[in-house]
Design a protein that fits this description.
There is one protein chain. The chain is an alpha/beta fold and 150 residues long. The chain has helices at 9-22, 39-49, 85-90, 93-97, 141-147; strands spanning 2-6, 28-32, 64-67, 74-78, 102-106, 120-126, 134-140. It is globular and about 40 Å long.
């Protein structure tokens, strides 16, 4: 488990960009955090790190957006509106997971039972007392589940 403090949205973007530079096809990254915590800023930075030039927005109503113009395809999910596993599988979740790209899922905590063990969870928490301050924690899915038990 690794944590950093981000002092402003640009730092969150840059941290994600650097993470993407090291990423390989098949990576699965789950983003967890409250509304407005910075999940979409992270996704934009990650896309930039893959060399994706097109605008990245949260796929709230489409569930998944595909970006194929970078060095690795990025499949950006928003799990907030997923009501059950069947809905995930209807959109081809398994094909994305085991395909040629990277899966980046906002609101991953809504579907933890459907995430493979190799998923990396990035938790973005607001730090009390400063509107821009965030603690970003990177952990394995198992570490995240252990920390969030109870």
């Amino acid at each position: 488990m690794k944590s950093i403090i981000s002092h402003k949205p640009g730092e969150t973007f840059e941290y994600a960009r650097e993470m993407a530079v090291e990423a390989s096809p098949g990576a699965i990254i789950g983003l967890v955090g409250d509304l407005g915590a910075g999940k979409t800023i992270f996704a934009k930075g990650f896309a930039a790190g893959l060399g994706i030039d097109e605008p990245v927005t949260s796929p709230t109503f489409t569930i998944v957006c595909e970006y194929r113009d970078g060095r690795i395809p990025l499949y950006h999910f928003d799990m907030y509106r997923i009501e059950d596993a069947d809905e995930l599988f209807e959109i081809g979740w398994e094909e994305y997971l085991y395909g040629d790209g990277i899966c980046l899922a906002e609101w991953a905590d809504m579907v933890t039972a459907e995430l493979p063990l190799e998923t990396v969870i990035v938790t973005i928490d607001r730090v009390a007392g400063d509107e821009d301050l965030r603690e970003i924690t990177v952990s394995t899915l198992l570490e995240w589940k252990e920390r969030n038990r109870g």
